[in-house]
Design brief:
64% of the residues lie in helices and 14% in strands. It is α+β, with helices and mostly antiparallel strands and 476 residues long. Among the domains are: 170 residues, Helix Hairpins (Orthogonal Bundle), CATH 1.10.287; 135 residues, Distorted Sandwich (Glucose Permease (Domain IIA)). The strands form two sheets. Strands 1, 4, 5, 6, 7, 8, 9, 10, 11 and 12 form a ten-stranded antiparallel sheet that branches. It is rod-shaped. Keywords: Signal. InterPro entries: Cell_wall_metabolism_enzyme, Dup_hybrid_motif, M23ase_b-sheet_dom, PcsB_CC. This is Peptidoglycan DD-metalloendopeptidase family protein.
């Protein structure tokens, strides 16, 4: 337990930059801790403000996501309605096509009937022609025989009553035959005209019906095309909404990641503040104890001087000796991290392969900020902490893959380092690490085109916008 407590104290000293010299507390160290506490409180305030801003952004994003989902639901309903209309329209078009096919069949039948009528007309015309010839012959015969008077002569020329009866019957028969021929002739002509008119009227009606059906079909096809265009537009809108929702979801995840990181940073700052306050209390106690010791030594010296003055006439020598004995003091030293270049060590063995700054992104194909530098390290290369600090994140991050973030308080300033695309992680959030400590292994996880270490440095806490990222090379 004592060994563990000693280790924790050593870690605390490493993180907070506190120094002791023997049993003497340095006033400069106390002032430094006071400044550090003030800086940490300021950082806590900034972190709370950032957390509030991120909570607001997250709430706004969730609101936009809800609106997007409602709009998606509306568009989906519209697409289903259009699909129903398309299905009905397609069925209507199929029905019209069947009606048009049936009408075409009717027209074909009527055309066939017209052909039959033409044959019948041809036969009727022949028959009418024959009857016309017969009637003409009959009329010529009647004209030559004197017409109806000859019929009387035939009857009056009878030799007997029986002959009269026979002659009368024959005349009636001939007259009936003539009448029948005329009636049949007229009937054939009437039938010919009626059939011809009926077929032509039926054909005209069916053709008119066909034209109407084709017009209706054209309207339905136009409606179908319009509905198809509407559906395509709605699908395009739906794809846009789905893309927006995905972007909002990713942004929300990044905000949640940032919330976790800020919470870890706040926890680390609170821990550092508590440690600083604790160490300040210890230093103040040591200062009080040292002041009390010096006061006691002073009183003891004065007492000895008084006693020696009474005991001997060598007051000066005794006073000198007493002064010599009471002049012991404990010097104090303070160590502060070096400033500027040299704050960090190279985190993994390998050459720099990509600089900090704007570049054409190898995956997304757009120009954007490369917020760190890349080190060409093969998978499994040991990863070292660039400086002493507290791990605030150790896990998967979108785009970064396996990632470690460490917050450092160096020379009164807060820095955050990020190590991405790792193959393994050997530390956990909240853990204190020392400079050079093995924290994992490099790799090729996340959005990476090959094994390497992506290393970022942020002045202050990490933020998703990379607005406080700086070129890491200035710290080596």
């Amino acid at each position: 337990m004592k060994k563990y407590a000693s280790l924790m104290l050593a870690t605390t000293l490493a993180v907070t930059g506190i120094s002791f010299s023997g049993n003497t507390a340095s006033a400069e160290s106390i002032d430094g801790l006071e400044n550090k506490i003030n800086e940490l409180e300021k950082e806590q305030s900034e972190l709370k403000e950032q957390q509030g801003s991120i909570s607001g952004d997250k709430s706004d994003t969730e609101g936009k996501m809800n609106e997007n989902e409602e709009e998606q639901s509306t568009v989906d309903t519209q697409i289903k309605s259009i699909d129903d209309k398309l299905t009905k329209t397609q069925n209507d078009i199929a029905t019209k096509e069947q009606e048009i096919t049936s009408t075409n069949d009717e027209i074909k039948k009527l055309e066939d009937r017209m052909i039959e009528l033409k044959e019948e007309i041809k036969v009727l015309k022949e028959r009418i022609k024959e009857r016309d010839e017969l009637i003409k012959k009959r009329l010529r015969a009647i004209q030559k025989s004197g017409g109806d008077m000859k019929y009387i002569e035939v009857i009056l020329g009878s030799k007997s009553f029986g002959d009269f009866i026979n002659r009368s019957s024959a005349v009636n028969t001939i007259m009936d035959q003539d009448k029948t021929i005329l009636e049949e002739q007229q009937a054939d002509k009437d039938s010919l005209e009626a059939n011809k008119a009926e077929v032509e009227e039926s054909k005209a009606s069916v053709e008119k019906k066909k034209v109407a059906l084709e017009g209706q079909k054209e309207e339905l096809v136009a409606l179908k095309d319009d509905l198809a265009d509407q559906k395509d537009q709605k699908k395009t809108l739906m794809a846009k909404l789905e893309k927006e929702y995905t972007d909002l979801e990713e942004y929300k995840i990044s905000l949640e990641d940032e919330q976790q990181i800020l919470a870890a940073q706040a926890e680390a700052v609170e821990k550092a503040k508590n440690l600083a306050e604790s160490e300040k209390g210890k230093l103040e106690q040591l200062a009080r104890e040292e002041a009390a010791r010096k006061e006691a030594e002073k009183r003891e010296a004065e007492k000895r001087q008084a006693e020696q003055a009474k005991a001997s006439s060598s007051k000066t020598a005794s006073a000198s000796s007493s002064s010599s004995n009471s002049s012991s003091s404990t010097g104090s030293t303070s160590s502060t991290p070096s400033s500027g270049s040299g704050l960090f060590i190279w985190p993994a063995a390998g050459p720099k392969t990509s600089d900090y700054g704007m570049r054409h992104h190898p995956i997304h194909g757009i120009d954007k900020l490369h917020a760190g530098m890349d080190i060409g390290a093969s998978t499994g290369t040991p990863l070292k902490a660039a400086a002493t600090g507290v791990v605030i994140r150790a896990g998967w991050m979108s785009g970064y893959g396996n990632t470690i973030m460490i917050t450092h308080n160096l020379n009164g300033k807060t820095y955050t380092t990020l190590y991405a695309h790792l193959s393994s992680i050997s530390v956990s959030a909240g853990q204190t690490v020392s400079q050079g400590q093995n924290i994992g292994q490099t790799g090729n996880s996340g959005g990476s085109t090959g094994p390497h270490l992506h290393f970022e440095v942020h002045e202050g806490g990490w933020n998703a916008a990379k607005s406080n990222s700086v070129n890491p090379m200035k710290f080596f």
